[in-house]
Amino acid sequence: MFPNKLIVILLVMTLYACSTPKKTDFKISLLNEKELNTSQDLKLKVLNPKEHQINSIMIRFLDQEVNADANTEVNLQLKGAKLGSHTVYADINVDGEKIELQQNVIIHNDKKPDFYTYKITNTFPHDIKAYTQGLEFYRDTLYESTGRRGHSSLRKVDYKTGEVYEQINLEDYYFGEGITFVDDRIIMLTYQSEEGLIYDANKFERIGKFKYNKSKEGWGLSYDGEWLYKTDGSDKIWRLNPETLEEVDYFQAVTNTTLLKGLNELEYVDGKIYANTYLKDGVVIFDPKTGAVEGLIDLRGLKSKVKKHPELDVLNGIAYNPKTEKFYVTGKNWDKLFEIELIKK
Predict the structure, then answer these.
(1) Which of 17, 200, 299, 314 is deepest in the core (most CB within 10 A)?
(2) Under a CB-based contact definition with an 8 Å cutoff, are residues 279 and 300 in contact?
(3) Dihedral, CA atoms, 36, 37, 43, 47, nearest 10 degrees?
């Protein structure tokens, strides 16, 4: 009799295990994932292929909560939603047990970006040894930050001659990154030291440091008069309090088809931010209030006009001079600074 009892017990245990709902028994199915933008609804279903008896399903997305039935389409409004990557949650109640499902979705911009090319209006000398990381005009003087450990610096430059008026060399352990101005302070990022540097713009000397928080690297930096914007090589653009330099939140730059990553040197001009994209011969224009990418600038061809040498690297560095109303671009270890005019295609 013992073997028969054992068989019965094992059979009961097997049936119980098969009937106990597991997270993998359910799935959130996105019905229009590739075309999501703010002019459409997010359409989804919670699939229950094993037909478990479900007490309730609650869908949570941004500030919306919707009761749903299994295998039935649910529509969630995206109008006014923040662009970029988000998570849809489904809380499933089965016999008093709660199962939470998660599914990532990306909300794209509902408009295609404009495309621009360029016209070179002037060419100026640039220090071929400068591994350019940040570039910005302040009171008609060009300021430049350079990178690489043991070679990083902050400079005041005569952009027409390439002459360096003044230079502060960083400690060897720093890898210099982007810069911007907040009133009479120069804010400078470092790459992987998890801290930034603060300089007095008038005295041209360091007056402090600040720590990063959730962003672990420093790439590009810009200021719109209200917020500082910081990139870190990821898909996040961090918003910083200009007084405390603390990270407040982040947003993402999004086209009508793509969530962008690797935005580098930044320049704020007339309500938009212009961003170099690392390893790309182009600049992205986005709205810092929404993250919507509104323009793409094709700068291919510039690198072919500079001196070829073993240390020659990628396009990086964009500055706008309000006095000339022109953009100025260069690259890492380029011997030229180009004054350009944008041409909309």
Answers:
(1) 299
(2) no
(3) 40
Task: Read off the pLDDT band of 216 (50, 70, 90).
Answer: confident
Provide the token pair at 98: 């709660």
Name the pairing type of β-strands 114-125 and 97-107. Answer: unpaired
- CA-closest candidate to residue 123, choices 339, 303, 304: 339
Q: pTM for this structure?
A: 0.89
- Residue of 124, 141, 139, 31 whose CA lies nearest to 75: 31
Q: 3-class SS at 11?
A: helix
Residues 220, 224: Cα–Cα separation, whole Å: 14
**CATH architecture classification, 114-344:** 6 Propeller (2.120)
According to CATH, where is 2.60.40.1930 located in the chain? 18-107
Tokens describing residue 203: 């005295």
Structural tokens at position 216: 């672990």
314-317: list long-range contacts, CB under 8 Å, 24+ apart. Answer: 314/278, 314/279, 314/281, 315/276, 315/280, 315/281, 315/282, 316/132, 316/133, 316/264, 316/265, 316/276, 316/278, 317/132, 317/133, 317/134, 317/135, 317/144, 317/265, 317/276
pLDDT tens, 276-314?
Answer: 999 899 999 999 999 999 999 999 999 999 999 999 999
Residue 43: which H helix or E strand, with range? strand 41-47
CB-CB contact of 52 with 67 (8 Å): no
Report CA Rg, the chain.
27
